[in-house]
Amino acid sequence: MSTTTRWGIVGPGRIAENVVRDFEHVAGAEVTAVGSRSTDRARAFADRHGIGTAHGSYADLVADPDVDVLYLATPHPQHHAVALDAIATGKHLLVEKSFTATVAGAEEVVAAARAAGVFVMEAMWTRFQPAVVELRRLVADGAIGEVRSVQADLGVAREFDPADRLFAHELGGGALLDLGVYVVSFAQLLLGAPDTVTATGSTFPTGVDAEAALLLGYADGRAATLLTSLRNALPGQARVFGTEGWIDVLPRFHHPATIVLHRAGAEPEEITRPATGTGYSHEIAEVHEGVLAGRGESAVMPLADTLAVMRVLEEAAGQLGVAFAEAPAEA
């Protein structure tokens, strides 16, 4: 029985540069190929990281018989078409967040993955950070009673540049898909899918969202208050409030090392759980182990959660007058 998974990198951009370095921490997970729309770019990435094969198109990488798993790190609207092609060839997938540019696109990818029986997971590394794993354990054990609300913020100050991917509508730019996905996914992890979504914010001249404040409401009175922005920096902190205490997730909450448990009538308890490597190793290991075990999805980042998060993001964007489309497959 194989103990190795052979990986291909789709889109050798900034995030891929960081993620690929953490493969050394996952025994048996090997990056064997990279694909880009530019052969030169693919070759340069391969040379930097000691990868044997460089493809000059995504299609060639998808068709590579010596690749089992694809890490999909292109801009959001390009995920949909590449994912469907990959699933059709029997490839397993780790898909960067946001999973797709639209709910309809995400639903199509999820349906195809389930029908094909391949492992597909959104690359929400936050859920696999050891400090967040410990937070979930504490919550499940009742350390703070019943969770009633969540607060989270994540924002950076970026000068508006219409040529930059972050501000380009056709590339799925804006705060929500790039940063808001973290705060929404964190709330969804602890509270589930909301009954109502209320958003306020602003947009850039290119038509993408610049900042957003979200109130997620639940029929039983629970709530999440979330902030995301490309206009101004935010602390990147999260808090989980329960009936018997709360937990602070220290900045930056989407890849924390430390949480602080506050129980009623007790001194605060600081708990540090550092990540292995840069922190991406844990999600890589989840996919690697899932593929070898023949699973179709992760119990920690299930596809139903990805769909729930996408629905919140799309609803919030719509309230700001923003709508995205999936990119067509490359010729």
Descriptive overview:
It is a single chain. This protein has helices at 14-20, 39-49, 58-62, 79-88, 103-116, 130-140, 175-191, 281-293, 303-319; strands at residues 5-10, 29-35, 53-55, 69-72, 92-95, 120-122, 147-155, 196-203, 209-217, 223-229, 238-242, 245-249, 258-263, 269-272. The protein has 331 residues and is an alpha/beta fold. Strands 8-9-10-7-11-12-13-14 form an eight-stranded mixed β-sheet, with helices on one face. Strands 3-2-1-4-5-6 form a six-stranded parallel β-sheet. It has two domains: 5-125 and 280-297, Rossmann fold, CATH 3.40.50; 130-274, 2-Layer Sandwich (Dihydrodipicolinate Reductase, domain 2), CATH 3.30.360. It has nine helices and 14 strands. Residues 133-247 form the GFO/IDH/MocA-like oxidoreductase domain. Residues 6-122 form the Gfo/Idh/MocA-like oxidoreductase N-terminal domain. Belongs to the Gfo/Idh/MocA family.
Summarize the topology.
Layout lengths: L4 E6 L3 H7 L8 E7 L3 H11 L3 E3 L2 H5 L6 E4 L6 H10 L3 E4 L7 H14 L3 E3 L7 H11 L6 E9 L19 H17 L4 E8 L5 E9 L5 E7 L8 E5 L2 E5 L8 E6 L5 E4 L8 H13 L9 H17 L12
Parallel strand pairs: 1-2, 1-4, 2-3, 4-5, 5-6, 7-10
Antiparallel strand pairs: 7-11, 8-9, 9-10, 11-12, 12-13, 13-14
Descriptors:
9 helices, six-stranded parallel beta sheet, oxidoreductase, 2 domains, NAD(P)-bd_dom_sf, 331 residues, Dihydrodipicolinate Reductase, domain 2, oxidoreductase activity, nucleotide binding, 32% helix, Rossmann fold, eight-stranded mixed beta sheet, alpha/beta, Gfo/Idh/MocA-like_OxRdtase_N
